[in-house]
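Collaboration report, partner site 2.

Our partner group contributed sequences for two proteins of shared interest, and the home lab folded both. The records are reproduced in the order in which they were received, starting with the first partner submission.
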Amino acid sequence: MTNKIKKILIANRGEIACRVIKTAKRLGIETVAVYSDADKNGLHVSMADEAIHIGPPQANQSYLVMDKIIKAIEDSGADAVHPGYGFLSENPEFAKLLAKKNITFIGPNPHAIQAMGDKITSKKLAKEAGVSCVPGHMGLIEDAEEAVKISQKVGYPVMIKASAGGGGKGMRIAYNDEEAREGFQSSKNEAASSFGDDRIFIEKFVEEPRHIEIQVLGDKHGNVIYLGERECSIQRRNQKVIEEAPSPFLDEKTRAAMGAESVALAKAVDYDSAGTVEFIVDKHKNFYFLEMNTRLQVEHPVTELITGVDLVEQMIRSAQGEELNMTQDDVKLNGWAIESRIYAEDPFRNFLPSIGRLTRYRPPIEGTKENGAIIRNDTGVFEGGEISMYYDPMIAKLCTWGEDRGVALNAMQHALDLFELEGIGHNIPFLQAVYDHDRFERGDISTAFIADEYPDGFEGGNVNPGHARKIGAICALMHDITEHRAANISGSLPNHQRHIPDEWAVQVGDLHYTADIKGEKGLRTIVVGDGEKAAIEMEVLTAWKPGLPLVIALVDNKPFNFKAEPIAEGYRVRHRGVEFKVAVRTPRAAELSAVMPVKEEADTSNLLLCPMPGVIVSILVEEGQEVQDGQALAVVEAMKMENTLRAEKKTKVTKINAAPGDNLAVDEVIMEFEVE
């Protein structure tokens, strides 16, 4: 028997709240948003039919407070709640409380959440069901010393995880006793802050595995199916960055085996909504149960794109008591989909969180393109909006679909080229570098991909000489357009017009070119030489005008796009994970520039600077104390993540400028060291 839902309150924020609202509106269901002080101008607030304020910015005083959510439900008259992901989405007490008040929970039953949402319980159930699990200690751990003993017994490296965790929060990898001790405390702190539950467990960390998950879908009539898999191996600090479906690694036999095991596990707890069973898979395609997430996953759009199934709609229908309208045989995987998580974090500063105003936010246009590829962008922000320090750094989830992996990948690369995002640090350059990497193109990836390929952090890619030549030619044309525009002013004296040369000297990073521009309007011919090889003639067409940060051009009838910001003598260009300066000068100015002195950067080696806007959690040293290379100096929290700052060399602390609880801006001085 079905119970038609009329009004849904979304107990969440950001892009997932917006995502749920879209499906609810399509189904003709009214929506209610809730918001904290920090989210009063949020996109989800304006999209919903109603919006109710629930408290201060801190999640544990707003989005995590069940009483406030219940009051919002009662005030709005909502008859159902969708929890999204995070916050209360995997809290069985919340689901039970809603059931007592006869409010429909759009998610699995409390028993399934209790059994599978708790990582410790789910491991035990999986073992009892004969599912292969990673070795570890499933019991609760009282303190750091017990964590060290357990870690020694399991064998380093180990993964220290929050029992109620998700999204990389409350997770640490430890390779020795000291890291186990530190990781245990940091995991407990993050778990308490993010989930209101500080229980911790430890398991063996299997090095260089693939992370592959199975999407399951159930109803209240005992039917459960799986909708293929998602490859989630590109991760940083256990946080997924790129997902794709299907996996480039699995074969039909392994997919079917993983799917059957996932369905069996779901049926064991009467699972009745969308959920995800996660596995680690070794190079021999052996798979081990990792955990089950009893909620909608962040990366669900790639499954929707290859199956045509709206998972939010299916969750709503299941919550209403409807039977699944499909069987396992009806599930067909069509084409390939890739998702890029676009985060407010600066890859050039070790991916530290970035907050502030989005001075420009222009994602690529959604829809089907000429080559049949589809672009989808799930977001919860808008141009002029603020990225807050109180929540996770998600800006958007950019997805592409193609008939095969190559088409989807090519579409993603072009979509990222067109994505305009200014005002904060973001990870688009890093995403572009990963997609351009030959290992990713081959599908030769693991959860260690980022650590292997960027062991010293991300410093940007190398300028591709072929791309550099095109960028140099286009920048010369842009400069030429700007100069002619400046020369064509009204009221100039006769015979005093500016002379604009036809040839420019162009420097792209360390590469030098000459660019001879022929033609006046529309399609221009540019002859590019580098002094060594024969000059190359290019036909360039662009509608670029001075002031536009996105350059959209055709070079020899092929699209070529990049971002450009005007600076002295040229442009600062960003393209495919590389940021560099392009100087455009007259030949004589280029000769003189070559002999100019280079300004040296200020020495900050004797300072500990705050690497991001955040709150000082603790200062771990004192003035006058000698510190060793690698010693922990301070802990800074931003966007629900704790970051330990360490000494880069042996030195002495001479002055401490900050205290626990202080809010610091990026590059504010935390402490000073002895000058050598």
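Second partner submission, folded after the first:
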Amino acid sequence: MPKGNVVFVLHAHLPYIHHPEYKFFLEENWLFEAITETYVPLLRMFKRLENEGIKFNLTMSITPPLMEMLANKSLQEKYINRMTRLIELAGKEIERTKSENPKKHKMAKYYYEDLKEILYIFKDVYNGNILNGFKEYLEKDRLDIITCNATHGFLPLMEMYPQAIRAQIEQGIKTYEKHMGRKPRGIWLAESAYFSGLDKYLSEYGIEYFFVDSHGFWYADERPKYGVYRPIITPNNVFVFARDPESSEQVWSAEIGYPGDGRYREFYRDIGFDREFEYIKPYIDPSGVRMNTGIKYHKITSKQTPQNKKDFYDIDEAIQAAKEHAMDFLRKKEQQSKKLISLFNGIEPVIVAPFDAELFGHWWYEGPIFLEEFMRQASKSSLVRTLKASDVVDIVEKVQIATPATSTWGANGYNEVWLNGTNDWIYPHLHEMVEKITELAQKYPNKDEVEPEIRRALNQMARELLLAQSSDWAFIMTTRTSVEYAVNRTKTHIKRFLELYDMVNNGKVDTKKLSYYEWTDDIFSDIDYTMYLKTDK
């Protein structure tokens, strides 16, 4: 009997943020929050399902910057220190909430035990490197871990520089191989951004498949017979999957999505902002800037309820809501599958549901519970099954050849999030940097014959360029969140690149300054500047 195939895709990504020159740096907490609220909870979910004998299937991209941060010893130590302080704070909260409210007291005890368990998993089970946990489930064939281009660079705006595209793809693959011990089969293109001809580069590097947004299929050069519900293959023999808009709306719509249920935890109420300053001071930014601690006592209640009127949160009530929503989502996938199988005359549909991984746990605290329960219940379904994207590539027999349309998964579907009046100033600099490093790569094509200091400077220039190309900085400038940091990071990488360019051109490398840049911008230890020789000319 034909079944609907559900391919869940989690895109795990954070920009590379490591400041070894500071004991505490606010933006490093983006990683620490994601480890605590998303990555370790996902590993915990995998373990529970495995212990129950449930064969779950999940596709997950872990981007090169995230891999490099998770494997970084300095960041691992900072995370352990951060968690140790949070556990101390949670212990204080147990005593404090005894006289405040029974629900707050219940949650204080819950957080204390939960944080201790997360630290135990991080520190004792995986010895600080949770990449090994994800690798374990890759090797057990439960996870399909795919790569991403090196620093999540926005590839459509590099179209005129083939060497820049190749460098992003090549370094992304090298970093995956370093941490996962094998070649990646698939790739998540940063921002799911595609332009006609990009598949040529993916094919060059042996990539078998990638993902686009729905309209990438709707406006393809030839309309796919099965819409977004079967993969297509490009003229360069790379499979393409498209996002199912129905699944996206059900899970993440601002209007009807599950995370808006009033029983779920309110993201924007945190004791880092609610408690009096002197009490919370040891657990926030040493400069005195308040920040999230992850200890939150309030639920969404309703969309109309002001923040200061929110009701108290109950974890058991929220778990029940997550299980109800998982069952509802399964029923919707079963109904959708039956309809599509009938429409396709028995051909099995492929329903692709891609999300930012951080939605599950960080933004939607109960998300991992939802996903776990969905996997549990789907394993019993006679109408749907979960598959990894690579499973589909392996079993699909007839595939339509087509070229997806230029598209992204950003607002309005194209490039405007990453190219507009807030961030357009960065691209002339990025283009100039590509031209300059290409010029020097052509001047020093044989790296083994180059003086060690010059070679180090050239490799550091490649790091600075890749870091400057991160799409996160342009995204942040558009969304107006941490704009000052994004602008400073972009300008810093441009400045350092140009300084190094002048050193190489003058034949006089300031080794002290170079060493400092290598220490602070320490991504990709295996980088090779000669990848910028790979032009089409």
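Feedback sent to the partner group on the second submission included the following. The chain has a mean pLDDT of 97. Strands lie at 4-12, 58-62, 143-148, 187-188, 209-212, 232-233, 239-242, 350-356, 384-386, 400-401.
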